[in-house]
Amino acid sequence: MTDNTLLERLFRGELCPQDTINPCSDAYRQTAKALCDRLDWWKDRLSPKELIELQEMQRLWIDRYSMEQSETFAVG
Fold it and tell me: Which of 1, 28, 46, 54 could bridge 23 with an S-S bond, Cβ 3.0-4.6 Å?
C-alpha cells in the first residue's frame, strides 16, 4: 500500500477541507445568529407548505454556494 501525500489525496477528492471548517469569528457568529433568528421569525408566519418551500430554496442556495466554493478551491 502506498503512502499518499496530502496533496495527492486532496487532488483525488478524498479530502474536503470545507467540510471541517468551523468559523469562530464574532462576525460569523453574529451573522449565523441573525440568520437563525430570521428563520425562526419566518417559521412562525409561514404555512407548513410554504415552510417546506423555503427550506427547499435554502438547500438550493447552500448547494450552489458549496459548488462555487469547491470550484474556487479546485482552481486555486
Answer: 28
At 54, the amino acid letter reads L
Q: How much is the CA Rg of the chain, to the nearest whole Å? A: 18
Report whether 73 contacts 16 (CB < 8 A).
no
Q: d(Cα 5, Cα 37) in Å, to the nearest integer?
A: 43
With contact defined as beta carbons under 8 Å apart, do 54 and 42 qualify? yes
CA distances from 61 to 13, 25, 56, 57, 66 (A): 22, 23, 9, 6, 8
Cα→Cα distances 44→5, 36, 37, 41, 53, Å: 50, 13, 11, 6, 15
70: which 3 cell numbers? 469547491
